[in-house]
Each structure stands twice: as C-alpha cells, then as structure tokens.
Specification:
Largest sheet: 3 strands, antiparallel
Strand order of the largest sheet: 2-1-3
Structural class: mainly alpha
Oligomer: single chain
Distance between the termini: 23 Å
Length: 200
C-alpha cells in the first residue's frame, strides 16, 4: 500500500486555544507529510511493499529503521488527528469509562498516570492507553514506537515530540498533556478503538 496524507477531520484552527492553527499547519502539513513521503520512498523495492500499515509497523520494527520510523509515525498520526476534536474531553462513553475504572480504580487515576507517562518520556515519543489481556494500561514509547510493537493495541496516544506542543506550550509538557485530556480528546473514537481491541 502507498501511504497518503489524510485531510484533518477539522479545520486547522478548530482546536484553538488548546492547539493552535500554526501547530497544526506545521505538524500535519509538514511533519506528517514528511513521514508519508519518506515512508513511501523507504518501502519501494522492499519486502514491505503491498503489506498493510499495521503489518509494516510490526514487521519492520528492529529490522529496517527507515521503514519503521516513517511507517510507525504515519500509523501514530493517522490516529492522533482522530483522537482529537473541537470541544473534546468531557464525558467518557459508558463502557469505556467502566473499563477504565476497572483497570485504574478511577478516571482521575488514569489521567494522572497518562500525564506522568507523557511527562516522563525522555526526549521524543508518545504516551498511550493500550489494551492487553483485556485490561487498559498506560504506557510510553520513544520516537515512533507504539504499543503495536509490544504486543498490545493502542486506543489513545498523545504525541510528546516537541513539534506537537512547543509553539503553544514551550517547555510546559505537563500543561499540554492536561489540555489534551481535558479539552481535546475525542473519547468516542477512543471507545471505538477500545471496542475493536476488546474483541481482538
């Protein structure tokens, strides 16, 4: 398959003031586009041609850095844009909320752990909610890695590469993560991914 850059599911200025138009112009239109173009070039003539994106991410991890870095980031960003929406945050759909409480004890504890994971990720990477063995857990990964390479299924990820937040938050990564959870997350999309992961 050939990677293509998806349109944002909202206008570039739709997530303000929590994520600026300028951030989305750089992050989506330039950074994500580079992963698409570089990934397509890296895959040409390799064993990964014709495979699904998830297959490429899993199969290239630890074997082909150029393919993995770009495919991994393309996969992460395809979901990242959908994990956010204007007027996000707020109530979590019932079945997902119950699963979060079953796994963490409370929604607040999940949010604390998620912010701690994202804040504690040294350098570039991601904070995650993942499903493994029927339970939801928090994790963090460096660079373009995701729970996929560790045998789990991601249901929510927050990009903590500096280009994701530095224009708006400078070095205040915890404030960015808090704003992401409280004001940007599209919990309906997270619930869809949770439902799919729970059945997998």
């Amino acid at each position: 398959m050939t990677f293509t850059l998806p349109d944002l599911p909202y206008a570039h200025d739709a997530l303000q003031p929590f994520m600026s138009k300028e951030t989305l112009e750089f992050h989506h239109d330039k950074h994500h586009l580079a992963y698409v173009n570089n990934g397509n070039n890296a895959i040409k003539g390799t064993e990964f041609e014709g495979k699904s994106l998830e297959e490429i991410v899993k199969a290239s991890h630890g074997k082909n850095a150029a393919v993995f870095n770009n495919a991994g980031q393309h996969y992460n960003h395809l979901h990242f844009w959908k994990w956010m929406k204007p007027n996000g945050g707020g109530a979590i759909p019932g079945a997902l909320e119950k699963a979060i409480v079953d796994s963490f004890g409370s929604v607040e504890k999940m949010k604390e752990d998620f912010i701690a994971a994202g804040t504690g990720q040294f350098g570039s990477g991601w904070a995650w909610l993942e499903v493994e063995g029927g339970k939801i857990a928090v994790s963090k990964t460096p660079n373009g890695e995701s729970p996929l390479v560790n045998g789990a299924l991601p249901i929510l990820g927050c990009d903590v590469w500096e280009h994701s937040y530095y224009i708006d938050y400078r070095n205040r990564r915890p404030d960015y993560l808090k704003a992401f959870l409280e004001s940007l997350v599209n919990w309906e999309y997270v619930a869809e991914m949770y439902d799919a992961a729970a059945k997998a």
